[in-house]
Amino acid sequence: MLRINTLSSVIRRYSIRSIPFTKEDLKGDDKYKDLNDHYSDLFTSEETQVSSKSKENSLSDDIAEINAELNELYGVESPIEVQNVEQREQKPQEFPIKEQDIHHDIQQDIQQDTQPIPTLKKESLLDKIKSNTPKIFISKSNNPFLNLAMEDYIFQNTPVTNPFKAQRLIFYTNTPCVVIGKSQNPWRETNLPYLNSVGIPVLRRNSGGGTVVHDLGNVNYSFINSKESFSRTFFGSVIVKAVNKRYGFEKLAQNERGDIIMALDKKKISGSAFKVTRGKSYHHGTMLLNSDLANLKQALNKRQRTGIMEFECRSVDSVPSPVDNLGLPNHDFIEVVSKAFQKMYETPVEIVEVDEFHNEEILKIAENLKDWKWRFGSTGSFKLKLNHQESGTLIEFHVEKGILKDFKTNKESDFEFLREQLTRGLELKFKSDEFVRFIKGDLYEWIGNQIDGTH
C-alpha cells in the first residue's frame, strides 16, 4: 500500500528557510492580497509555526487525496479497506473448525505425502509350491527336459507337515521322447539307432518303473502326497472313476498291477512309476490319448535285434504290453481329472499355469537331465554280445557307467587298434562315434548301426 505517513514530512520537503523575495506591504492594493498571502504561507521557513487550524486540516485532506490517487493508480487497497478486511478476519466464523480436526487433517496430508504407494507383490512359482494347500500345476512348455525338471522342482519344494496338506497334481505334455526308469539300461530298453535317426531324445527320470514314450498326444500326470498316504493304486482309481463318469459308462479299469487299461479289451493306456522319499511320495504316469502308436512301437522295438544282440545286465526290464489310445482330447482329460482332484479337498484348489522356466534351479535340474553321464553314464555294468552272422564274427563288449572297459572277440586282428587305445588308458564312451573308427574293415559300420547309429 502506498501511503504518505506524516504531515511534517511533506512540510519539510516543500519548505525553505527564507522567502526568495522581499515582501512589501502594498497598502490599498487589496486585489493582490490573497495571492501574496498564499505564497507567503507556502514558503514559510521551518521555524515558522503553522498555526492555522484550517490550513493544517486542508493539507491533511490534500495528503489523503494524494494517497488515494496513488493507491488507485497501483491497484492497492486503501487503509480503510485493509482495516475492514482485518476486522472481518478477526470476526468469529459461524462454523468454527475444531483443533483436533485440523490436527487430523494435517497428519493425514503428511501421511499421504510421505508414505509410499503400496504395490502388490506377484507370487513366484516357488511361493505357490511352498504354500500349504492343495494345488494343480499345468505346464505351458512341451520341452521334456524342462517338464521333468519342473516336476522334480515341485516335488523337492513341496512342504511336509503333519497332517499333510500340500497335495499336488501336475500335468505336462512333451514333444516326442523316450523316458527310461532310473535303474534301466537305455541300450537294452530302446531302439537307439532309430531314435537317433529321427532325432528323438532319451531321458532318464528319477523314479523307477519301465520305459515309456511321450508325444503331444499323451498327457503326463503326477500326484504328490505324503509318504504315509502312498498307494500304487489310489490315484489311478481316481482317474478311472472320473473318466468313466465323463463317458457315462465303464470305459476304463485297473489291472492287478494298478495300470489303467481299457475295460473292454484290457489294452494298456497308462504306465506308472513311483517315488517315496523325505516324507513325500509321488505317483506319475502317462495317459495315451491320441499318441502315434506306430512311432511308439518302433522306438521300443527289440525284435529286429533278436539273434544279433544279447545283453547280460542287472538292470530293470520293462514289461511289454499291448497299448491303445483313450481318444479324449488333452484339455478334456486335464479338466476331468482336475475336477476330481478338487473334489477331494474341502478348501479351494488353485490352478497354476507354469511358464516360469527361467528359474535357475529348474534350469540346473534340466541341464543335469541332459547330461550324457546321467542319461547313459549312470547305467549299471553290462555286457553286450554281437553276432555278425555273415562274417562269423563274435564280439562281447564290457561296459561300466557308459564307458567301454574291455572286449572279447574271435577276430582279434580286426580289433587290434581298438585294443591298443584301451591299453593306453583312453576313455571311450560306449558311443559308436567314439570307438568304432578303431575297428578295421567294413565291420565297424555294422557294429555302429547295432549300438546307436551315431557314427
From TrEMBL:
Q: Which Gene3D superfamilies match?
A: Bira Bifunctional Protein, Domain 2 (3.30.930.10)
Cellular component, GO annotation: mitochondrion
Domain BPL/LPL catalytic residue range list: 163-349
Q: Highest taxon of the source? A: Eukaryota
Task: State the Gene Ontology BP annotations.
Answer: protein lipoylation
Cite a single Pfam family from the UniProt record: LplA-B_cat
Q: What is this protein called?
A: Putative lipoate-protein ligase A
Q: What is the lineage of its organism?
A: Eukaryota, Fungi, Dikarya, Ascomycota, Saccharomycotina
